[in-house]
Each structure stands twice: as C-alpha cells, then as structure tokens.
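User: tokens in, sequence out, please.
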C-alpha cells in the first residue's frame, strides 16, 4: 500500500465538523410553509475580519503550471505582458488575487533561487523535482527547468496582478545563508548591497518588499523527511537572523499533513524549548489537506483510493464533499493543539495547499502531470471550503488553492493560445466580495441530504455558507450540495432591513459540467435581482454555489 507520505518521501527520490442538521437545533424559528430552509444573519454577532489572503493561490513549477500556464515567453504569439500570459493577468486582476505562493510545493526544496536571476539567456537548465513523474508527452521545459521565470519575473507577475508574493525557501538542500541572501536580493534598498545591484541590473531598482516567506515545504516528507523536532531546530536556525531593512517579514513554518496533530505538537514543543518568545518568529503554520480518498473507506492507498475527475456518480459527489468537509475539523483540531503552546494566539494557520486530487486521465493537455478537469463538483467543493475559511477567520490568516493553473483544483486551464476559466475560477470571482469584510455569525438550517452510501443510509448537511459585512453591504455565500433538491429559503437579517438585493448563482443540470477550450461557457454564473421583502426569499438550486449581495438601510 502506498500512502501520500510515502509517495512524497520516496517517489521522486528514486522514481470540523459543524453539522447543521434539521431545523430546530440552531434556528430560533422554523421556516414558513412555502420554504424548507432558513438563513439568519446575526449582524450583532461579528466575527473577525476575513483576511483577503484566504483567497490566495499557489503556482508551483510543476507540469504545465509555470511553463505554458503562467509563462509563455516574451516572443510568443500568445498575448503576453513581458512573457506572462495576458489572459491570466486580466482574470487574476478581476478576482482580486491577493497573494501567490511560488515556486513550490515539493519543487521548492530542490530549487536554487540564484539559477533564476541574471540575464535570462545565461540561466542554467536544471532537473525539475517532478522530472521522474513526467511522461513521454511532457515538453522538455517541464522536466528540465529553463529558469526563464525566476524571482524577478515572478514578482513582476505579482505586481501586474496586484498580488503579494509568497516565496517558499529551500530548507532541504540549501544552507540558511542562501535563505537570507534571497531575502537580501528581494528586499535590500537600491544601491545598498551587491544583491540590490544585481536586481537593479535586471531592471528592478526598487526592492520587492517580499513579506511572506515559507521556511521549507512539507518538511515531514519531500521537504527533508524531518521529524517535527528536527524541523523545529532547522526553523529556529533559518529564522534566527535575516536582514530586514524595516520590512516586516512573516515566516510560515511547514506544518502538518492533514490530521497529524503530533507534528503540530512536536514542532511547537521543540520551538518553545528555547523559550516562549521563540513563538513570535512564527507568523503561520502551514496546513495541507487534499481531498483524494474517494474509496468510501475501503482503502488508504494513495493510488487506489483516488476517484475520477469526470466519471462519477452522486455518491462520489458527496464523498468528495465529505473529504473536503474534514477541513473544518482540521482547522479546529490544529488550532486547539497550537493553543497548548501559544496562549496569546500569535500564530495563525496558513492552509497553503488545498483542493481535490483525482487520478490521472482528465488532462486538458496530454502530458501535463497532475492536471485534472474541474467540474461543477469542484466548484461546490471550493465554495464550501472558502466558506469554512471565512467562518474561521480568527484562525486562518491565509489559504492557497492548489493550484492556480493546469494543476489539480485549477482556476484556469491553458495551453498555447487556449485559455479557459474553470468552474473553480468562477467561484473565486463570486467570492471575491468577502475579502476584507467583517465576518458575521450566520445560522443555516435546512433538511439534511439523505442517500445510500454502499447500501447504508448516509446524510450530508443541507445548506451552509458564510457572511461578511462591508459598511452597509452584506455579502452572503451559500452552498447547496444536494444533487437533486433546490432549497426554498427565507433569509432573515437580524439588526437591519434590506434596501435592494441581487444573487449570483453557479449551477448546471449536469453535475459533471465543466468548461473546456472548445466550450468555455458551460458553467458560468447567472445574476438576478431579488425581490425585497422581509424575510427575503431565495431558491438555492440543486448542486449550486450562490453569492448574494444585500444593500442594507
Ligand atoms: O501540489 C502538489 C504537491 O502536493 C506539492 O508539491 C506538495 O507540497 C504536495 O504534496
């Protein structure tokens, strides 16, 4: 049997549960007879501000993500800005992309940032970490990194889309000295250091001001096979001194794989062995969770447990959501363990890899490893996950969907001059309105979904979502996971009246619906006005994600 941990340790070396069920439990009043569900937004019960960075992205040098996805080259016939795909820039501006993590993932711990600076035609070609996973069909740039997109080009990309860069540093195979040299290259003031001169010679006089720094990636696996204690020692060493020039640096520690509570505990235990003030070095602990096991409990094998991106039935649909739903318990569980050491709650969670992971076979471009076709199911999954992050805005400071383009839960698919926004990308556009809003407690009550899971009755919650306030505008997102039933819902806003309202809905009669290069508009949202009344009435279609904007008086 292959586990994910083993997969990541060996493959490349050699080759919350908060269920709102029923009406009575959480709702003060039952729905009226014409409705079956109810949402109550409690304006008087504010939560934390929703960090825009929860809507972050992840672009690893893996398969078709960087070469073909992001980078097409300056002389390409594909529309580009300084070598970067223009269609991608335009859409990422639209969705207000706040932060992008780069260059990995597992790739990060074999990357030498110096290979990606200096004149582009002099940069070396290096074996990509993912080379052994690549197929015969993969182009050479996927196996041997041509280093055409390095630090300068990546930061330039971030500047073009209005994002902050989040750089993942190599702890497995570069010394601590190279970590602070990379910071020096990015952030030292013009004219101050040789690194700043090198940056200026490349056309970037002003410091990049990179704030977010990952200290390794998955250090329990591909990032070095450390124990939690060993990694904590490395983390202390790498972060003990780095140059700052008044720039606040936010260090993100490699965190647990899924529910490995012992990693979180062991790491923090070792960190505080040198005193509780050591905690202040850590901005966030990374958490990774992929929904990959759709075997309905039959196996834990990393290969055998995976499902198909396109070929699935209703039970598989719920199975994916059940796997994704684990995110809530993971956030609560790791937060609880973190609190054993960090009573001041200085450290936040950074969920810098999340999304479904299916078996190969649905690639839009043959030869792109880990590329899969996102469907309406993945849109519903993504809406549900973003709502979980919003509801835990006191704990989650950043999240990065894995990955941005041509990989796993892609927002975009691209190949040469073809480009399409996936249903997941549509959800990010719909949810952008939450960024920076004041979270507000919201109660959802709806009949649970009931279905047969391998001849046993199973249930899944009926409606969930999240709400945020932006002055007099209330933004409410809602997921209806039921593949067959719309939810006739009354929406009560406690503490204000609604002046005007409209709703944007993403759904399709076919739960497998997806957007392709040939048919890019199969899954696109529709917006309608909502009749103002008290309470508001809204029908959340079966298998849908909705975003409601309510102007309050
Ligand atoms: O996103 C793909 C891979 O999944 C990343 O490189 C790694 O961090 C994770 O295991």
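Assistant: Sequence out:
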């Amino acid at each position: 049997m292959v586990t994910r941990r083993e997969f990541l340790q060996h493959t490349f070396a050699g080759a919350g549960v908060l269920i709102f069920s029923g009406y009575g439990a959480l709702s003060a009043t039952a729905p009226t007879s014409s409705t079956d569900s109810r949402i109550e937004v409690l304006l008087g019960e504010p939560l934390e501000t929703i960090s825009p960075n929860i809507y972050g992205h992840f672009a690893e040098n893996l398969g078709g993500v960087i070469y073909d996805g992001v980078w097409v080259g300056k002389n390409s016939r594909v529309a580009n800005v300084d070598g970067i795909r223009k269609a991608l820039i335009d859409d990422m501006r639209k969705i207000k992309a706040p932060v992008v993590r780069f260059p990995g993932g597992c790739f990060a711990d074999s990357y030498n940032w110096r290979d990606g600076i200096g004149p582009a035609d002099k940069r070396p070609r290096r074996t990509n970490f993912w080379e052994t996973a690549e197929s015969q069909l993969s182009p050479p740039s996927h196996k041997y990194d041509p280093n055409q997109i390095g630090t300068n080009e990546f930061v330039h990309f971030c500047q073009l889309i209005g994002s902050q860069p989040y750089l993942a540093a190599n702890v497995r195979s570069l010394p601590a000295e190279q970590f602070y040299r990379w910071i020096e290259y990015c952030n030292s003031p013009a004219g101050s250091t040789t690194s700043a001169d090198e940056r200026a010679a490349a056309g970037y006089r002003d410091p990049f001001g990179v704030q977010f720094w990952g200290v390794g990636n998955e250090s329990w696996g591909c990032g070095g096979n450390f124990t939690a204690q060993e990694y904590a020692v490395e983390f202390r060493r790498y972060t003990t001194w780095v140059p700052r020039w008044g720039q606040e640096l936010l260090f993100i520690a490699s965190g647990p794989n899924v529910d490995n509570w012992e990693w979180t505990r062991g790491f923090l235990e070792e960190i505080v062995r040198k005193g509780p003030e050591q905690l202040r070095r850590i901005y966030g602990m990374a958490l990774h969770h992929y929904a990959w096991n759709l075997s309905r409990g039959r196996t834990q094998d990393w290969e055998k447990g995976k499902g198909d991106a396109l070929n699935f039935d209703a039970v598989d649909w719920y199975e994916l959501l059940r796997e994704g739903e684990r995110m809530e318990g993971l956030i609560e569980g790791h937060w609880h363990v973190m609190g054993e050491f960090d009573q001041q709650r200085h450290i936040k969670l950074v969920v810098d890899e999340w999304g479904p992971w299916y078996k190969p076979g649905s690639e839009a471009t043959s030869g792109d490893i880990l590329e899969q076709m996102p469907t309406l199911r993945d849109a519903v999954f993504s809406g549900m996950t973003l709502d979980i992050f919003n509801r835990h805005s006191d704990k989650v400071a950043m999240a990065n969907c894995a990955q941005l383009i041509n990989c796993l839960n892609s927002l975009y698919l691209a190949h040469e001059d073809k480009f399409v926004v996936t249903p997941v990308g549509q959800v990010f556009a719909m949810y952008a309105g939450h960024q920076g809003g004041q979270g507000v407690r919201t109660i959802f009550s709806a009949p649970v979904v009931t279905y047969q899971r391998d001849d046993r009755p199973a249930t899944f919650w009926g409606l969930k979502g999240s709400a945020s306030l932006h002055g007099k505008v209330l933004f409410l997102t809602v997921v209806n996971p039921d593949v067959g039933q719309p939810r006739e819902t009354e929406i009560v806003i406690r503490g204000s009246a609604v002046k005007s309202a409209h709703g944007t809905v993403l759904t399709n009669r076919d739960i497998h619906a997806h957007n392709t290069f040939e048919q890019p508009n199969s899954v696109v949202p529709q917006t309608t006005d909502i009749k103002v009344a008290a309470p508001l009435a809204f029908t959340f279609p079966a298998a849908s994600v909705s975003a409601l904007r309510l102007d309050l008086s």
